[in-house]
Design a protein that fits this description.
This protein is mainly α. The chain has one domain: Ferritin, core subunit, four-helix bundle (Ferritin). Helix content is 65%, strand content 0%. The longest helix has 31 residues. The termini are far apart. Bound molecules: fe (ii) ion (FE2). The site of fe (ii) ion has 2 residues, from loops.
Length: 208
Amino acid sequence: MAKKQNESKSNRNVSPQPRLHQRARETQSYGTVRYALPLELEEPVRVQITNQLNQLLADTMTLRDLYKKCHWQVAGPTFYQLHLLFDKHYGEQNELVDSIAERIQMLGGISLAMAADVAETTQIERPPRGREEVPVQLSRLIDAHQIIIQQSRPLARRAAELGDDGTNDLVVSDVIRTNELQIWFLSEHLVDVPLVEAKERAASAGAS
Ligand SMILES: [Fe+2]
């Protein structure tokens, strides 16, 4: 009996050895929400909203990474301004990624996180690995913004209808407004204006 007690005592000894390479079953499956939360939002509402937020998250993560690709690979006379602009937008999209992911967790859901899962989920067209011209970079970014805006407006309205004011506020105040502003900054670079000589001035100068 005494021996048994000593054995169980030694088993409980604290060891300085880290327990490495551990694996275990998930504690919550993707696509589910915690059923009991004091949020005054029913489980089916939170399932619906977190599913749509995960789509928005996958697309926002993809747009964020597309900005970094463009930041690194941009070339040409507008290199400096676009290099800086793309990184500024990257940082703003990165903040949105965190806000959307944490909103999903707040609602009791599970956020997408890893690149492979994001790649399977996003609706944004995959660009080639190589470098593309500036107008193509800008067009890809604007197309990606459009996909995000397209889903954000109905998502904001649906969240408001279901009583999820927090999600409505996040999508309207942060996602939609940030994307609208960034679309404006990109689109202005695709307006074909003369850089040195005004077109009208050249025409009247030719007539005289
Ligand atoms: Fe950089």
